[in-house]
Design a protein that fits this description.
By secondary structure, the protein is α/β, with parallel strands linked by helices. The chain is about 45% helix and about 15% strand.
């Protein structure tokens, strides 16, 4: 494996990548490693007032700005938000992307998720994991000789099985940068998600107060990850560190793609905590 592995994050929507793995993406860029974030859908459904026609170019612009915060590429595809299915068309596009970008690590949603778009992307990446090496599938792009490592993004769902703690990062130091990236998604954080969460009235009018508001929002949404897996963190890290850690990103290594050894894991997940059970 290259000493500077390449990271590809395949999310369903603009803002999924940085919300779930912004800390890891930040570390990659700090180490001068390449990062590409992809939104498989166009984000056209994510608003209560703005029309889909207005949202598509707006969310593409917001995503590009979010990637620029850490110097990462951010690409938004044209599949319709809220209508994504695990079709051959989507799978073939993902196969082509993995082959063209040649990542060492691919992150995506688990196929178990509240959002059908998330499930569709996760299923397509799972189905693409072997097919990226098959030359007659998507023959317009040369096949890879070996699979990349694929890992699942953080989630708290329990059915049919909960996420397995293969890799854990303490991302407290990256919280501000994650917030800066998410703050670029203005139509989402300050409008749609605030509306959905019933907290529109708390969004500050002053621009210089908005980033602090986002950091509070991010903290409130990331903190439950550590709380959910507290017993496992204490078991693996001890009562002091495991009991005090507050902000984490955790990942499960997919068994459908390449299986990393300990040395490769340390390259793929810089400064990961010693909790892996894979």
């Amino acid at each position: 494996m290259n000493d500077k592995p390449r990271l590809l994050i395949l999310g369903a929507h603009p803002d999924d990548a940085e919300y779930a793995a912004g800390g890891l993406a930040t570390r990659y860029r700090q180490l001068d490693k390449e990062v590409k974030m992809v939104s498989v859908t166009d984000g056209s459904a994510g608003h209560h007032q703005r029309s889909p026609e207005e949202l598509i170019p707006l969310r593409r612009k917001e995503a590009a700005a979010a990637g620029a915060v850490i110097g990462a590429t951010y690409e938004t595809w044209d599949f319709s938000d809220g209508k994504l299915q695990p079709t051959l068309e989507v799978r073939d596009r993902i196969i082509a992307e993995i082959r063209e970008y040649q990542p060492d690590l691919v992150l995506t949603h688990r196929p178990f998720d509240y959002h059908p778009d998330h499930r569709a992307v996760g299923q397509c990446v799972q189905d693409a994991s072997y097919m990226v090496t098959v030359p007659h599938i998507v023959p317009t792009v040369p096949a890879l000789r070996k699979d990349p490592v694929v890992a699942y993004l953080p989630d708290l769902f329990r059915r049919p099985v909960p996420l397995r703690l293969d890799v854990v990062l303490d991302v407290a130091a990256e919280l501000r940068t994650i917030s800066q990236m998410l703050a670029c998604h203005r139509s989402q954080l300050f409008e749609w998600l605030a509306y959905e969460g019933g907290i529109l009235e708390t969004v500050p009018d002053a621009e210089d107060e908005k980033l602090d508001w986002v950091e509070t929002w991010v903290g409130n949404h990331i903190r439950p990850r550590a709380d959910r897996f507290r017993d496992g963190l204490i078991t693996r890290l001890g009562p002091e560190q495991g009991g005090q850690i507050e902000f984490i990103e955790m990942f499960e290594i997919s068994e459908y793609a390449a299986q990393p050894d300990a040395a490769n894991l340390s390259l793929l997940f810089p400064q990961a905590l010693p909790v892996g059970c894979h």
